[in-house]
Amino acid sequence: MNIPQMQPLMPATHLASRLAETTAISVSACYQCKKCSAGCPLTFAMDLLPDQVIRLALLGQMERLLGSRTIWVCASCVTCTTRCPNGIDIAGVMDWLKEEALKQKAAVDQPEVATAHRFFLESIRKAGGRLSEMALMQRFLIYKLRRQPNLKELLDNAKLGLALFKRRRLRLGRPPVIKGKGEIQSIFQRAGV
Ligand code: SF4
Ligand code: SF4
């Protein structure tokens, strides 16, 4: 997988220091061992490997990163983070880049994934820190029906939802109330989500 040559949008140190300031994640210790990419289950669908994302962050290639497919393909499974010998939270970097792409209104390679990401976070915020899977499904269904109704896709999704429900992987009721709702709200406010 080749990384195209691009001019940095911002000085390399600026991107890395902004990342460190907002997330406390430092990428400077990366020595390109590629253990993160070797463990990632979704590299087949990515245009940049996780180690390349970290390398480009160090090089200040913000534009290339915000326009990449990888940040939206990433499922936040955190495998890369647990494998990194230098303790770099690569999954956290992916999350930060997603939010930056939305804030900067970057052209998103996977608009539906970006929408699902936004609905997911809004659902958690509204439910006070827990995910209301029903609310999330309803909202995404309405979005899909308005945007591009596709009967086959809806039926496939309904089958998948039923299979998940049968395996108790899908909760239809309200999520349980948790303590510390105020803290959750303040986290969202601080993150500007
Ligand atoms: S596992 Fe860590 S040190 Fe190795 S390439 Fe990935 S981010 Fe860099
Ligand atoms: S968090 Fe994202 S980049 Fe890391 S291993 Fe999982 S899917 Fe891959």
CATH topology name of the largest domain, in short, is: Fumarate Reductase Iron-sulfur Protein, Chain B, domain 2
Strand content: under 5%
* Class derived from helix and strand content: mainly alpha
Residue stretches low in confidence (pLDDT < 50, at least 5 long) are none
Q: What is the CATH-assigned architecture of the largest domain? A: Orthogonal Bundle
Overall average residue pLDDT: 87
In total, how many beta strands? 0
Helical coverage, percent range = 55-70%
In angstroms, what separates the terminal alpha carbons?
33 Å
Based on CA atoms alone, the radius of gyration comes out at 18 Å
- Note the main sheet: none
Number of helices: 11
State the order of secondary-structure elements, H for helix, E for strand. HHHHHHHHHHH
Ions and ligands? iron/sulfur cluster
The tally of structural domains comes to 2
Broad CATH class of the largest domain = Mainly Alpha
- General shape: globular
What's the CATH H-level homologous superfamily of the largest domain? Alpha-helical ferredoxin
Task: Give a verbal description of the structure.
This protein has eleven helices and no strands. It is mainly α and 193 residues long. The chain has two domains: 12-103, Alpha-helical ferredoxin (Fumarate Reductase Iron-sulfur Protein, Chain B, domain 2, Orthogonal Bundle); 111-191, no CATH class. α8 runs antiparallel to α9 (133-147). The mean pLDDT is 87. It binds iron/sulfur cluster (2 copies). One iron/sulfur cluster is lined by residues 40, 42, 50, 74-80, 90-91, 94.
